[in-house]
Specification:
The chain is α+β, with helices and mostly antiparallel strands. It is 28% helix and 22% strand. Bound molecules: adenosine monophosphate. The site of adenosine monophosphate (AMP) has 19 residues, from helix 13.
Length: 501
């Protein structure tokens, strides 16, 4: 491996050999078929990552590791696969990545043999000083297998001078910047923790058992608790580290100075499943409320409200209810095409938008419509959909977006492209409207979004959420970025407008 093999989104071109990090994690301690429970949990988190999946189980003696590219069902859908993963403790991971760098060496949970025994780690988020830490570790002789940011945690733990594994782990965490929700398995049990700002989600629950000794479960989203029959107990709090021993006894630690949490608001906008409860709120209700805010802020004189399926559906219901304009399905989605966003090139993306969506011609012909989608990233989807509606005979096509303009890259684990590919970073509102060829275009305001999550407004001095993709207000230091002096990433001035699709 050369040093250029250490490629890390978002410092590299999205068409290059780069990793995409938005993932789902799951862990269970004290279940009879822990790996089967984990496979089920990961299945409910599949929307968080479709590129690869992995499970590590522990049977009291040994760790068992199975990882593969593709969906959870492809890797863990058979009795044979489950037979390879015995034990009552297990952790798992689904990973979001499509282009290049997809070798199994990067598929999580990562596993290593430390002085204290086996150590498996599953990570959701992005360590924004991983490159810096890695070059430092390499200089000191550490050897890396893969290119994922998560891997730096292993040598940091291994080389810590603290005596116990927990202390070593905390010592390692204190060196990290960025976002991490982690689930680790060790011979003593499981450790689950969230970064001090709680940027990525992590919830805790338990599976009640008849003999009274239930299993403890951790997951990125509550939908994964639902599917395994677990009861939601609470969120792992920002900056909290929870240890669970093999008997299910839990101990909570607070290794960091307490700061106000900053959960990612984009989980509400797009990433989480609508049937999840995130940061104490129903994601579905929040999305509907964003649609209501949008209708209040940016009404449209139209005949129909049409969602861009599936991501725009709850917001479109909210928009329709608030405006009194009928909600109709003017676009039908094929469920056999993956997310358009993760296709490797713009050409492939454009094609897959048309394979994914089709106009309900009989409905939209001759109508004035307003389309509702959750976000515009590169603009590929919007441009295609607006054209599709016009081709189907819509007389006016207005576009409303249930998030503020996405103007900045995410360095905390949501897969946004480099700034110069973000439509809103390249163009002003009118140029964007012209680019997607809509009759009008409006985004919900940042305060409208905060109102939808139950806040009176965004507090500019100490924002209640991480909203850096919309505001550029990054809540942590970005050491790697500063070191790479990657021009354009933090540059607030928009780039030169150019057509990308
Ligand atoms: P684009 O076509 O590049 O403008 O992408 C916009 C579409 O991608 C929206 O309809 C969203 O539903 C979806 N989207 C937004 N953010 C992400 C993300 N981080 N990962 C995958 N899809 C996304």
């Amino acid at each position: 491996m050369t040093s250029t093999d250490f490629v890390h989104h978002p410092f590299h071109d999205e068409d290059g050999d780069s990793l995409r990090e938005e993932c789902g994690v799951f862990g269970v301690v004290g279940a009879r078929d822990a790996a089967a429970v984990t496979a089920l949990g990961l299945h409910a988190l599949q929307h968080r990552g479709q590129e690869a999946a992995g499970i590590v189980s522990y049977d009291g003696q040994e760790f068992h590791v199975l990882r593969g590219n593709g969906h959870v069902a492809e890797n863990f859908g058979t009795g044979e696969a489950m037979a390879e993963l015995p034990g009552t403790m297990s952790c798992g991971h689904v990973r979001y990545s499509t282009t290049g760098g997809t070798g199994l060496r990067n598929v999580q949970p990562l596993y290593a043999e430390l002085a204290s025994g086996g150590f498996a780690i599953a990570h959701n988020g992005n360590i924004s000083n991983a490159m810096h830490l890695r070059s430092d570790l390499v200089r000191r002789g550490a050897i890396f297998q893969g290119t994922a940011d998560t891997e730096v945690i292993i040598p940091l733990v291994a080389t810590s001078r603290y005596p116990t594994l927990l202390d070593k782990f905390v010592d390692a965490l204190r060196m990290l910047e960025g976002a991490y929700s982690l689930i680790c398995s060790t011979p003593a049990g499981m450790i689950a923790c969230r970064d001090p700002l709680g940027i990525r989600p992590l919830v805790m629950g338990h599976i009640p058992e008849k003999d009274g000794k239930g299993a403890v479960v951790f997951a990125s989203e509550t939908v994964a608790l639902d599917i395994v029959g677990a009861v939601f107990d609470r969120e792992v709090e920002a900056g909290e580290l929870i240890e669970v021993d093999l008997d299910g006894k839990t101990t909570s630690h607070r290794p960091f100075t307490k700061t106000a949490s900053r959960p990612c608001i984009f989980e509400h906008v797009y990433f989480s499943r609508p049937d999840s409860i995130s940061a104490g709120q129903s994601v579905y209700s929040v999305r509907k409320a964003i649609g209501q805010q949008l209708a209040i802020e940016s009404p449209a004189d139209v005949d129909l409200v049409i969602p861009v399926p599936d991501s725009g559906v709850p917001a479109a219901i909210g928009y329709a209810q608030e405006s009194g304009v009928p909600f109709e399905l003017g676009i039908i989605r094929s469920h056999y095409v993956g997310r358009t966003f993760i296709q490797p090139s713009d050409g492939a993306r454009t094609n897959s938008v048309s394979r994914k969506h089709n106009a309900n011609r009989a409905l939209v012909a001759g109508k004035r419509i307003v389309l509702i989608d959750d976000s515009i990233v590169r603009g590929t989807t919007s441009l295609k959909i607006v054209q599709m509606m016009r081709d189907a005979g819509a007389t006016e096509v207005h576009m409303r977006i249930a998030s503020p303009p996405t103007m900045h890259s995410c360095f905390y684990g949501v897969d946004t492209p480099e700034r110069n590919k973000l439509l809103a970073a390249r163009m002003d509102m009118d140029a964007m409207r012209e680019f997607i060829q809509a009759d009008s275009l409006a985004f919900v305001s940042i305060d409208g979004l905060y109102r939808a999550v139950g806040e009176a407004e965004r507090k500019p001095k100490c924002p209640q959420y991480c909203d850096a993709c919309f505001t550029g207000d990054y809540p942590t230091r970005l050491t790697d970025l500063a070191e790479k002096t990657h021009a354009g990433q933090l540059n607030l001035a928009p780039g030169k407008p150019e057509k990308v699709a």
